[in-house]
Amino acid sequence: MKPTIFLFFLILINTSAHSQNSPEVCYNPNLVKDTTKKSITSMAFQIVNGDSIKISYHSPGVRKRIVWGGLVPFDEVWVTGAHDATYIIMPKSFEVGGKTIPSGKYAFFTIPGENEWTLIINKNWKQHLASEYDEKEDIVRVKVKPKKVDHTERLQYYIEMPNNMEGKIAVAWEKIKVELPFKFKS
User: 20, 92, 101, 158: most buried, per Cβ within 10 A?
Assistant: First the structure.
């Protein structure tokens, strides 16, 4: 069995031991020592009123590299992971930045900046890196301020739900975290 598959399997087993609202749902670095030098196929999910929100992504590691302004350039569209575009599956209509978006599958991109990030939901969920990205297919763009956090070796997505109607999609990597607030339409 490949180490990446084994690690992913452990992550899924571990998630069942946590409550639905635990921010550790995606990845627990204490499970096994991460010696993988490649990106790991990962998923974050959250059950809300019997429906599930899913985020599928590739999780790269920092591996002593300069991430922001180095590996990930500032002011350029980024796939917010590695390889294929990160995608989000929403089970029902939701609102982001005042815009109502129908249920469905969408790509999630970002434009990292030193002091401000642009978070993007795009119609074309099936694309490789940002090479096929087209701004005309953006559904919504939201500007947010990055937050400083403790070191996160592997890129991680979280779905934080303080209640059944609103939440945040959060991304943490290296020492930065950004959050995309959303609300379900009733």
Answer: 158
